[in-house]
Amino acid sequence: MSGGKRVGKRFWRWRSNPLRRRDDIVEAWIVLAVWAVVAAGGMVAGLVTAHAADETFPQQRVERTSVRAVLLSDVPKPSPGRWSSGDKTPAKVRWTAPDGSTRTGRALVDTGLKAGTGVVVWQDRHGTLTTAPPSSTEAAVEAGALGTFAGLALAGAVHVVGAVARWRLDRRRVDGWGREWDLVGPQWGHRTG
Q1: pLDDT 10s per residue in the chain (193 long)?
Q2: Model pTM above 0.85
Q3: 178 is a domain residue
Q4: How many domains does the chain have?
Q5: What is the C-alpha separation between 83 and 75, in angstroms, rounded?
Q6: Is residue 59 domain-shared with residue 139, that is, in the same domain?
Q7: Which domain range does residue 32 map to?
């Protein structure tokens, strides 16, 4: 029995009621629209983003190639007391671009290597150094994460817009109650006893 009362309290804006105002109906539609856009729009945004990312990563694997490069300077191991970002550090390397020209640039290489050591770097089709393309597993995880973030971002934005609209309705209701009280309040006067 209490379940029916609870449902009635939740959906009071949708039922005919002499105390229901036009603003209550508008608010009910705003809440419904926000939830519909969050549910459907968030899912669509997430799927579209994940699909776009999923198409980009295989293209990167096709466009990027690994090439042998020569280390131009020593890369010392980090000292024990010094902060280190891991086993790799940027160093100057020389490699051959797809057009046959020799180029130099900076790439992440393992620490502790001597000048003249051969290392593997990645380049795009123009011969510019780039990062290694993600593996299939990494691409799937990243596409899923990007899709989730896109869905949550849309949901958050829609929720904020809905909250602002409801806040404006509340301000309008409070102002209306103030105007009505200004009309009714003086009629009550000081009639005590």
Answers
A1: 455 555 556 666 667 777 777 888 888 889 999 999 999 999 999 999 999 988 888 888 888 888 999 988 888 877 665 565 567 888 899 998 888 889 999 988 888 888 888 999 999 888 889 888 888 898 899 999 999 999 999 999 999 999 999 999 999 989 988 888 888 877 776 665 5
A2: no
A3: no
A4: 2
A5: 15
A6: yes
A7: 28-63+133-167
